Amino acid sequence: MNSENFSLSEKIVSTSYVRQGSQARRSHEQLIRLLLEQGKCPEEGWSESTVELFLSELAVMDSNNFLGNCGVGEREGRVASSLVARRHYRFKLIHGIGRSGDIAAVQPKAAGSSLLNKLTNSVVLDILKLSGVVASCFVVPLATGMSLTLCFLTLRHRRPKARYIIWPRIDQKSCFKAMITAGFEPVVVENVLEGDELRTDLEAVERKIEELGAENILCVHSTTSCFAPRVPDRLEELSILCAKQNIPHIVNNAYGVQSSKCMHLIQQGARVGRIDAFVQSLDKNFMVPVGGAIIAGFDESFVQEISQMYPGRASASPSLDVLITLLTLGASGYKKLLSERKAESDGAVTQLGSMLFTRQVSGARVIPLGKEQTIGGHTFRGFMSHSDAYPCPYLNAASAVGITREDVTLCMKRLDKCLKTLKKEKNVAKSSSPVLPPCQEDTTGE
């Protein structure tokens, strides 16, 4: 409703009532105006009615929603199910965002969808700044592993002779497969045990660079967010080494946006050395469905190069999901989630994991000793412990964004019950096992 329509409405309904409605709409429009003007995440979250009004206004800007439109192209936002159309707010983004040459390109027939895509990237960039890193970025409809692959494939054009990727070990399949899928040979560098922590072996990384030759190395592939006992890689030292040797540096920052420590390491690494790109998951950091990631970097031209490497158009679902989420939370709401996550994080082995799962405790990982896993022809001993010979089995859990104090308390209560049950079963088994009398030694040798 524009001002003319409101004036006409006053001939049908009481003027005072219409003006109240007009003022209410203006309050929604003011929020939308600020978003378009600043391109930042609003400080306070929007109501669902404001979000829906905004999305509806954008959708009518797409040609498939033009009154009397006659679409004769191969892509005209056609869908067979009205339920699917409503799920996507009837945007032309039903047929994707970007163009065949660039995932960030504007679509001539889809002004609303293109605007949504640009705003999503702008709002996400603002959240990265809020989390401590100033960089360029874009949202890509790929999960973390494939997003890393896209970064490696982009680097191939810059370093056509390179065959190897140096990778301080982290026992997570996706990031390892990302290197193999891109056609490179991962060079696994074992971590060193310092106390009970597994840390980057910088000397081993340097030796591998000297052994293979810097010109044959595509990049160093480091990691920030990880499960204990592995800690984030020594990003500052690796960044300095990469700058010195003129080797690109790609960082797997999958869970890292929610961690001020991880984001600080990335910003510092870029300040003192070289970080070409860092990748973070949408679902892990923003509580949206799996399927999207943020690819970011400090060289805007390289980030643009990566976006242009994406073949064809792209699904808009991850962009739509994260934009709705951030507009609803607002910057203050997201900061509150981060502070709550940080507060909560301060607070027979395989059988224990099973017992926790049956008691509806999901996400806890039990790491036994001696497990082997072969991925892409490389066998990892002690898989999931990030080391060939970690000294003891253990259990860990992720203090991820969205976790509550109640979750932690309930988990600890159920863990305590599981441990007591295990102890009781062990005592019963011990008391029922045959014991030879002291005077009768076992001499069978079995």
Describe the structure.
InterPro entries: PyrdxlP-dep_Trfase, PyrdxlP-dep_Trfase_major, Sec-tRNA_Se_transferase, SepSecS/SepCysS. One of its GO terms (biological process) is conversion of seryl-tRNAsec to selenocys-tRNAsec. TRNA binds at residues 271, 359, 424. This protein is an alpha/beta fold. It folds into three domains: 1-38; 117-324, Type I PLP-dependent aspartate aminotransferase-like (Major domain) (Aspartate Aminotransferase, domain 2); 342-430, Aspartate Aminotransferase, domain 1 (Alpha-Beta Complex), CATH 3.90.1150.10. The chain is 47% helix and 13% strand. It is built from 15 helices and 13 strands. The protein has helices spanning 3-9, 15-38, 48-59, 82-87, 111-130, 144-158, 173-181, 202-212, 235-245, 260-272, 282-286, 300-309, 317-346, 349-358, 405-432, and strands spanning 136-140, 164-168, 185-189, 192-194, 197-199, 217-223, 249-252, 277-281, 293-297, 365-367, 372-375, 378-381, 394-396. It has a seven-stranded mixed β-sheet with strand order 1-9-8-7-6-2-3, sandwiched between helices. Helix 7 (173-181) links the parallel strand 2 and strand 3. The chain is globular and about 85 Å long. The termini are far apart. The model is unreliable at 434-446 (pLDDT under 50).
